[in-house]
Amino acid sequence: MSKFAAGTSVPVERSKGQIEKLLMDYGASHFSYTVGPRAAAVSFQVGTRVIKLRIGLPDPEEFRLDGRGRERTSNQIQALVEQATRQSWRILRLVIQAKLEAVATGISTLDEEFLAWVVAANGETVGDILAAQLESKAPLQLTSGK
User: What gap in Å lies between CA 115 and CA 107, rounded to an integer?
Assistant: First the structure.
């Protein structure tokens, strides 16, 4: 996993609050979170665009063995999972902040920064739609609408 925020002690709830504040400060609306056993998502709306960013959450099985192949205790595993979860949320906060700042300063546009996470009319993200097409090895069917 990434080194950024590897040792963070910032609670997940604080990172979520910071993400929500960032989004509201940059004009987002209709904000929500969803959390499942191995993934979480942040959804929000900016203008007419609905955006949904997802992050994977750690699997306790990844931490079952230490570097020498010895079994960890359940408390050790839980502590490592919690640390990795805090790290994931800090990274998501950083990514969102950087993207919103790039848009605010005119380096790029909202669509350029968040295109893969824009929710299409069918409820899927643009990234999901394109990834499925790429995996099928079929030619991409993109039309300009003109």
Answer: 15
